Protein backbone atom coordinates (compact mmCIF):
# COMPACT_ATOMS: atom_id res chain seq x y z
CA UNK A 1 0.00 0.00 0.00
CA UNK A 2 1.68 3.19 -1.19
CA UNK A 3 -0.22 6.38 -0.38
CA UNK A 4 0.32 9.08 -2.99
CA UNK A 5 1.37 12.48 -1.73
CA UNK A 6 0.13 15.82 -3.04
CA UNK A 7 1.62 19.03 -1.67
CA UNK A 8 -0.66 21.98 -2.21
CA UNK A 9 -0.30 25.78 -2.02
CA UNK A 10 2.97 25.75 -3.98
CA UNK A 11 3.89 29.39 -4.59
CA UNK A 12 7.26 29.31 -6.36
CA UNK A 13 9.46 27.15 -8.55
CA UNK A 14 11.82 26.75 -5.58
CA UNK A 15 9.01 25.36 -3.42
CA UNK A 16 8.07 23.04 -6.29
CA UNK A 17 11.64 21.79 -6.59
CA UNK A 18 11.95 21.11 -2.86
CA UNK A 19 8.58 19.34 -2.68
CA UNK A 20 9.54 17.07 -5.58
CA UNK A 21 12.91 16.27 -4.03
CA UNK A 22 11.14 15.36 -0.79
CA UNK A 23 8.96 12.84 -2.63
CA UNK A 24 5.75 14.56 -3.75
CA UNK A 25 3.75 12.78 -6.45
CA UNK A 26 1.67 15.87 -7.29
CA UNK A 27 1.85 19.60 -6.66
CA UNK A 28 -1.15 21.89 -6.21
CA UNK A 29 -1.25 25.43 -7.57
CA UNK A 30 -4.12 27.48 -6.12
CA UNK A 31 -5.91 29.75 -8.54
CA UNK A 32 -8.23 32.63 -7.55
CA UNK A 33 -10.42 31.68 -4.57
CA UNK A 34 -12.98 33.48 -2.39
CA UNK A 35 -10.87 32.58 0.67
CA UNK A 36 -8.01 30.41 1.80
CA UNK A 37 -4.21 30.33 1.53
CA UNK A 38 -1.75 30.02 -1.32
CA UNK A 39 -3.52 31.75 -4.19
CA UNK A 40 -1.38 32.74 -7.17
CA UNK A 41 -2.05 34.13 -10.63
CA UNK A 42 -2.48 31.90 -13.65
CA UNK A 43 0.73 33.37 -15.09
CA UNK A 44 2.65 32.39 -11.96
CA UNK A 45 1.03 28.95 -12.03
CA UNK A 46 2.14 28.45 -15.64
CA UNK A 47 5.70 29.46 -14.77
CA UNK A 48 5.83 27.02 -11.85
CA UNK A 49 4.12 24.24 -13.79
CA UNK A 50 6.74 24.60 -16.51
CA UNK A 51 9.44 23.63 -14.02
CA UNK A 52 7.69 20.41 -12.91
CA UNK A 53 8.71 17.35 -14.92
CA UNK A 54 6.72 14.10 -15.23
CA UNK A 55 5.87 11.85 -13.52
CA UNK A 56 4.99 14.52 -10.95
CA UNK A 57 1.56 15.89 -11.86
CA UNK A 58 0.60 19.56 -11.90
CA UNK A 59 -2.78 20.42 -10.40
CA UNK A 60 -4.69 23.67 -10.61
CA UNK A 61 -7.27 24.30 -7.88
CA UNK A 62 -10.14 26.21 -9.43
CA UNK A 63 -13.40 27.56 -8.04
CA UNK A 64 -14.87 28.13 -11.51
CA UNK A 65 -18.25 26.49 -12.09
CA UNK A 66 -18.52 26.20 -15.87
CA UNK A 67 -16.64 23.91 -18.22
CA UNK A 68 -15.56 26.79 -20.45
CA UNK A 69 -14.11 28.78 -17.53
CA UNK A 70 -12.36 25.70 -16.15
CA UNK A 71 -10.84 24.94 -19.53
CA UNK A 72 -9.65 28.52 -19.85
CA UNK A 73 -8.11 28.40 -16.37
CA UNK A 74 -6.32 25.11 -17.03
CA UNK A 75 -5.04 26.34 -20.39
CA UNK A 76 -3.70 29.53 -18.83
CA UNK A 77 -2.03 27.65 -15.98
CA UNK A 78 -0.50 24.92 -18.15
CA UNK A 79 -1.49 22.04 -15.89
CA UNK A 80 -2.45 18.41 -16.46
CA UNK A 81 -5.02 18.06 -13.66
CA UNK A 82 -7.97 20.19 -12.51
CA UNK A 83 -9.04 20.09 -8.87
CA UNK A 84 -12.58 21.44 -8.97
CA UNK A 85 -13.35 22.83 -5.52
CA UNK A 86 -17.01 23.65 -6.10
CA UNK A 87 -19.63 21.14 -7.20
CA UNK A 88 -19.69 21.31 -10.97
CA UNK A 89 -22.73 20.10 -12.87
CA UNK A 90 -21.88 16.54 -14.02
CA UNK A 91 -22.65 17.64 -17.59
CA UNK A 92 -19.85 20.17 -17.18
CA UNK A 93 -17.48 17.34 -16.36
CA UNK A 94 -18.64 15.54 -19.49
CA UNK A 95 -17.88 18.66 -21.51
CA UNK A 96 -14.44 18.89 -19.94
CA UNK A 97 -13.73 15.28 -20.85
CA UNK A 98 -14.88 15.83 -24.40
CA UNK A 99 -12.97 19.06 -25.03
CA UNK A 100 -9.83 18.29 -23.00
CA UNK A 101 -9.62 14.48 -22.88
CA UNK A 102 -6.09 14.47 -21.48
CA UNK A 103 -6.91 16.87 -18.63
CA UNK A 104 -7.61 14.85 -15.48
CA UNK A 105 -10.68 15.89 -13.48
CA UNK A 106 -10.68 15.67 -9.69
CA UNK A 107 -13.97 16.57 -8.05
CA UNK A 108 -13.72 17.92 -4.51
CA UNK A 109 -16.35 16.77 -2.03
CA UNK A 110 -16.54 18.79 1.18
CA UNK A 111 -17.45 16.29 3.89
CA UNK A 112 -19.85 18.19 6.12
CA UNK A 113 -22.17 15.26 6.84
CA UNK A 114 -23.32 11.93 5.41
CA UNK A 115 -24.79 13.76 2.43
CA UNK A 116 -21.30 13.57 0.93
CA UNK A 117 -21.96 9.89 0.20
CA UNK A 118 -24.93 10.76 -2.00
CA UNK A 119 -22.64 12.66 -4.36
CA UNK A 120 -20.82 9.52 -5.46
CA UNK A 121 -23.58 8.53 -7.86
CA UNK A 122 -23.67 12.05 -9.33
CA UNK A 123 -19.96 12.30 -10.10
CA UNK A 124 -18.38 8.85 -10.25
CA UNK A 125 -19.00 8.38 -13.96
CA UNK A 126 -17.55 11.78 -14.85
CA UNK A 127 -14.59 12.41 -12.52
CA UNK A 128 -11.20 10.69 -12.64
CA UNK A 129 -10.85 10.93 -8.87
CA UNK A 130 -12.38 12.44 -5.75
CA UNK A 131 -10.73 14.64 -3.14
CA UNK A 132 -12.40 14.77 0.27
CA UNK A 133 -11.85 18.07 2.07
CA UNK A 134 -13.17 20.06 5.02
CA UNK A 135 -14.49 23.20 3.38
CA UNK A 136 -17.89 24.71 4.12
CA UNK A 137 -19.21 26.03 0.81
CA UNK A 138 -22.64 26.90 2.23
CA UNK A 139 -21.33 28.81 5.27
CA UNK A 140 -21.82 32.54 5.71
CA UNK A 141 -18.12 32.86 4.91
CA UNK A 142 -17.52 30.31 2.17
CA UNK A 143 -14.44 28.11 2.57
CA UNK A 144 -13.29 25.78 -0.20
CA UNK A 145 -10.13 24.30 1.29
CA UNK A 146 -6.98 25.22 3.13
CA UNK A 147 -8.84 25.33 6.45
CA UNK A 148 -6.45 23.17 8.43
CA UNK A 149 -9.53 21.41 9.84
CA UNK A 150 -10.26 17.70 9.81
CA UNK A 151 -13.68 16.22 9.07
CA UNK A 152 -15.41 12.96 9.99
CA UNK A 153 -13.01 10.31 8.70
CA UNK A 154 -15.56 7.56 9.31
CA UNK A 155 -17.67 9.13 6.55
CA UNK A 156 -14.56 9.38 4.38
CA UNK A 157 -13.86 5.68 4.94
CA UNK A 158 -17.39 4.83 3.83
CA UNK A 159 -16.88 7.04 0.78
CA UNK A 160 -13.70 5.15 -0.16
CA UNK A 161 -15.48 1.83 0.24
CA UNK A 162 -18.41 2.94 -1.92
CA UNK A 163 -16.54 4.21 -5.00
CA UNK A 164 -14.26 2.65 -7.55
CA UNK A 165 -12.52 5.98 -8.15
CA UNK A 166 -9.28 6.92 -6.38
CA UNK A 167 -9.92 9.06 -3.31
CA UNK A 168 -7.47 11.64 -1.96
CA UNK A 169 -7.91 12.70 1.66
CA UNK A 170 -7.34 16.34 2.64
CA UNK A 171 -8.15 18.59 5.57
CA UNK A 172 -6.08 19.05 8.71
CA UNK A 173 -3.56 16.26 8.06
CA UNK A 174 -0.25 16.41 9.91
CA UNK A 175 2.53 14.17 11.16
CA UNK A 176 0.65 13.45 14.39
CA UNK A 177 -2.61 12.24 12.87
CA UNK A 178 -1.59 10.76 9.52
CA UNK A 179 -1.26 7.21 10.87
CA UNK A 180 -4.83 7.31 12.19
CA UNK A 181 -6.03 8.86 8.92
CA UNK A 182 -4.44 6.11 6.83
CA UNK A 183 -5.70 3.39 9.14
CA UNK A 184 -9.24 4.75 9.19
CA UNK A 185 -9.78 5.93 5.61
CA UNK A 186 -7.30 3.90 3.52
CA UNK A 187 -7.08 6.67 0.90
CA UNK A 188 -5.37 6.41 -2.46
CA UNK A 189 -3.53 9.63 -1.61
CA UNK A 190 -3.29 12.49 0.86
CA UNK A 191 -3.14 16.23 0.29
CA UNK A 192 -1.77 18.89 2.62
CA UNK A 193 -0.91 22.55 2.74
CA UNK A 194 -0.91 24.46 6.03
CA UNK A 195 0.72 21.76 8.18
CA UNK A 196 3.95 21.89 6.15
CA UNK A 197 4.24 25.68 5.97
CA UNK A 198 5.70 28.27 8.34
CA UNK A 199 5.03 31.98 7.83
CA UNK A 200 3.42 31.09 4.48
CA UNK A 201 6.57 29.34 3.24
CA UNK A 202 7.12 25.64 2.59
CA UNK A 203 8.95 24.26 5.62
CA UNK A 204 11.35 21.44 4.69
CA UNK A 205 11.57 20.13 8.26
CA UNK A 206 7.80 19.90 8.63
CA UNK A 207 7.48 18.31 5.19
CA UNK A 208 10.12 15.68 5.86
CA UNK A 209 8.64 14.91 9.28
CA UNK A 210 5.24 14.40 7.68
CA UNK A 211 6.62 12.16 4.93
CA UNK A 212 8.48 10.01 7.46
CA UNK A 213 5.25 9.56 9.43
CA UNK A 214 3.30 8.79 6.25
CA UNK A 215 5.73 6.13 5.07
CA UNK A 216 5.76 4.55 8.53
CA UNK A 217 1.97 4.46 8.47
CA UNK A 218 2.08 2.67 5.11
CA UNK A 219 4.28 -0.06 6.59
CA UNK A 220 2.15 -0.41 9.70
CA UNK A 221 -1.15 -0.78 7.85
CA UNK A 222 -0.17 -2.48 4.58
Structure report:
The chain has one domain: Aldolase class I (TIM Barrel, Alpha-Beta Barrel). 37% of the residues lie in helices and 19% in strands. Strands 1-2-3-4-5-6-7-8 form an eight-stranded parallel barrel, surrounded by five helices. The protein has a two-stranded antiparallel ribbon with strand order 9-10. The radius of gyration is 16 Å and the shape is globular.
Brief summary of the model shown:
By secondary structure, the chain is α/β, with parallel strands linked by helices. It has helices at 13-22, 42-49, 67-77, 90-99, 115-118, 120-123, 153-162, 178-185, 204-221, and strands at residues 4-7, 26-30, 57-62, 81-84, 104-110, 129-133, 167-170, 189-192, 197-198, 201-202.
Amino acid sequence: MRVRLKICCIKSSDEARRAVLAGADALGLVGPMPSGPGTISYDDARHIAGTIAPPVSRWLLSSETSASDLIDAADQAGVDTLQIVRQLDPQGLEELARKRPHLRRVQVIHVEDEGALDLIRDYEAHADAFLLDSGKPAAATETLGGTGDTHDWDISARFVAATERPVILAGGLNARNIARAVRTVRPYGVDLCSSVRTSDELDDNKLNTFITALRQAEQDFS
